[in-house]
């Protein structure tokens, strides 16, 4: 059996708990700054605009420029305020409030799991090369940075930035090229049976799932990320 020398991770619900509901975030932010909105109508309008602009958002991510994606969200916010029949003076306070709720110290959307830091520390100490491959937009880099996780990883691959997403093997192949790694020496860990387990295995990687709701770790599923350390260097 080829020993594992490289470990890649999914991010959402693997490294970071994500509670991402854009219409709710927008409405909560609006109410926090005193903007007069009807929750149901405002959420419906936001969802409509978000869906209509999704192709534009995908193209913005391909630019790899956070200023471009930030401009997209700002324009969406302006369009939403206008659709609700309100003045543009609400736009900047709304953007500021939403940014704080997303990326501020008390983020309502993102929370790093307690077992992540100790696991990454131990893997680094043992000399493993590490990467992230996640179905996420350009903000993946910002979220990893806000929790001090960036320094652990040799490469970070966000699907919307690349124009390809798991379970397509191309995104795994791309990540392995950046890591200068072979599939057989690489283990991928994620929470999704299709995207992470089947996708990684189809690309020739070893793979394990993480499910913190499980009472204990099994052959294919980790109940705690720290249990990964007992499965290395070989993973059956």
Quick structural gist:
This protein is an alpha/beta fold and 236 residues long. It has helices at 22-32, 39-52, 54-62, 66-83, 91-103, 116-125, 140-146, 159-162, 169-179, 193-202; strands at residues 6-9, 16-18, 110-112, 129-134, 155-158, 186-190, 206-210, 221-222.
Fold and architecture overview:
The protein has helices spanning 22-32, 39-52, 54-62, 66-83, 91-103, 116-125, 140-146, 159-162, 169-179, 193-202, and strands at 6-9, 16-18, 110-112, 129-134, 155-158, 186-190, 206-210, 221-222. It has 236 residues and is an alpha/beta fold. It folds into two domains: 6-18 and 110-230, HAD superfamily/HAD-like (Rossmann fold), CATH 3.40.50.1000; 22-103. A six-stranded parallel beta sheet has the order 5-4-1-6-7-8. It has a two-stranded antiparallel sheet with strand order 2-3. β4 (129-134), α7 (140-146) and β5 (155-158) form a beta-alpha-beta unit. α1 packs across α2 (39-52) and α3 runs antiparallel to α4. The protein is elongated. The mean pLDDT is 97.
């Amino acid at each position: 059996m080829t020993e594992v020398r490289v470990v890649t991770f999914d991010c959402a619900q693997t490294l970071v708990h994500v509670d991402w509901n854009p219409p709710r975030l927008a409405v909560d932010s609006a109410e926090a700054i005193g903007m007069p909105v009807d929750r149901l109508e405002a959420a419906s309008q936001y969802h409509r605009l978000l869906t209509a602009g999704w192709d534009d958002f995908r193209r913005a991510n391909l630019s790899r420029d956070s200023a471009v994606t930030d401009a997209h969200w700002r324009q969406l916010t302006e369009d939403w305020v206008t659709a609700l029949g309100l003045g543009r003076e609400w736009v900047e306070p709304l953007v500021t409030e939403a940014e704080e709720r997303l990326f501020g110290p008390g983020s309502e959307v993102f929370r790093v799991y307690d077992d992540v830091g100790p696991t990454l520390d131990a893997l680094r100490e043992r000399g493993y090369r590490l990467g992230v491959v996640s179905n996420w937009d350009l903000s993946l880099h910002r979220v990893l940075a806000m929790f001090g996780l960036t320094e652990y990883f040799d490469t970070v691959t966000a699907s919307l930035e690349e124009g390809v997403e798991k379970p397509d093997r191309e995104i795994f192949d791309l990540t392995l090229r950046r890591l200068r790694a072979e599939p057989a020496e690489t283990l991928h860990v994620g929470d999704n049976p299709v995207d992470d387990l089947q996708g990684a295995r189809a690309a020739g990687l070893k793979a394990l799932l993480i499910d913190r709701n499980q009472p204990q770790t099994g052959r294919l599923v980790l109940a705690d990320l720290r249990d990964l350390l007992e499965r290395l260097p070989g993973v059956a």
